[in-house]
Amino acid sequence: MSAPVLIVGAGPxxxxxxxxxxxxxxxxxxxxxxxxxxxxxxAVHFDGEAMRVFQAAGVADALGPETHxxxxxxxxxxxxxxxxxxxxDQQIGETxxxxxxxxxxxxxxxxxxxxxxxxxxxxxxGAEVTAVHQTDAGASMTLDTGEVxxxxxxxxxxxxxxxxxxxxxxxxxxxxxxxxWLVVDANLKHPWxxxxxxxxxxxxxxAPATYVRGVGDRRRWEIRLSSDAKPxxxxxxxxxxxxxxxxxxxxxxxxxxxFRSVVAQRWADGRVFLAGDAAxxxxxxxxxxxxxxxxxxxxxxxxxxxVLQGGTDVLDTYETERAPHIRAFIELSVNLGRLINSxxxxxxxxxxxxxxxxxxGPGLGPRDDVAGRLAPQIIVDGARSDDLCGPWHxxxxxxxxxxxxxxxxDDSGWLAARDLQAIVVRPDGYxxxxxx
Length: 436
Known about the structure:
By secondary structure, the protein is an alpha/beta fold. Helix 1 runs parallel beside helix 4, helix 1 (about 10-25) packs parallel to helix 7 (about 290-310) and helix 7 (about 290-310) runs antiparallel to helix 8. It is globular. It has helices at about 10-25, 50-55, 60-65, 105-120, 165, 235-240, 290-310, 315-340, 385-390, 415, and strands at about 5-10, 30, 45, 65-70, 70-75, 80-85, 100-105, 120-125, 130-135, 140-145, 150, 155, 170-190, 200-205, 210-215, 220-225, 250-265, 270, 270-275, 280, 350, 380, 385, 395, 405-410, 420-425, 430-435.
């Protein structure tokens, strides 16, 4: 057998999944079609929950220099009015991390790859999968070289055009948003404070656009187009003229993307699973695309490890928990997209917007105001609770002993504020159950 778990795709989701499996004592091998890491910008945001998963994967500290803590996002009308103020707290939040981070994806992937190398994990580049096979006892893939690799489980983290998904005959449900947008990444030549540190969504039916303050001198603009024809470089500068000129910045890349809202009709087929863009795609207006893929990895990793190590088979809860969660994020992202494409008179009220953390869909344990939702990560004497008690289930308690796992006293007041004696925290950071 090549490895207990084979992962197709060496993007952030596949690499994070491999590192999490390693943490749980399961060997994984990653196969990547491209011969080298993609050097240009793609994802530019992840949230505190994703950083908590990166913490579990052992890379959070190394990611620090690759990030910028974001103050948040403003939604403005065409006349400059602030419709929605989505400021993010600049203090450490309930995840144990800041609410919002700006990033440069190649830098994130470099850190993840270095961690994989340090852990002795194999990443095979230039490996194109041409067929996926499975039996009741295992799965395998055939590469374009003719080599066949066997595994217990196979995970397709191979992006929007996933070969793994196509090979399983899995269709996508279209949730009703599809628009061509120009995405431009530029590096400033000199400080340009007028652009600001907040990201800005310009709500305008004639010229909707997004500005993103990136890491260091990096800046991004996303501009809705009337067609999917790629403009010339001169045309790109005309679009950017309301903000900058060629004297102010150097273009790193520009491309036309079709922003879509789609979810795979099935996330699993026997011993083969989908994660990340292979399972779902959403418009970027909330910056949740990569975050949701990282959540997939966190949910699936410990369940695969538990089964492979002889524990209860809970793999059927992967899709039932993750798919409704994704749909909730997509619905809000699409609503924000409609607001950006309007005069600002959308379904969302003007004013202050708070981060929304939907509950998981039905799966393990009961569901209430806490169970099935992201649990807090408290800090005790400078150490985070996931590090103190991980990598498996543990209990936060006010004193009641929860048998069979590590118990940690919650002095933060979180449990007391909810009249709870204890909660059981899953390996992916979600509350399994509450104890009143």
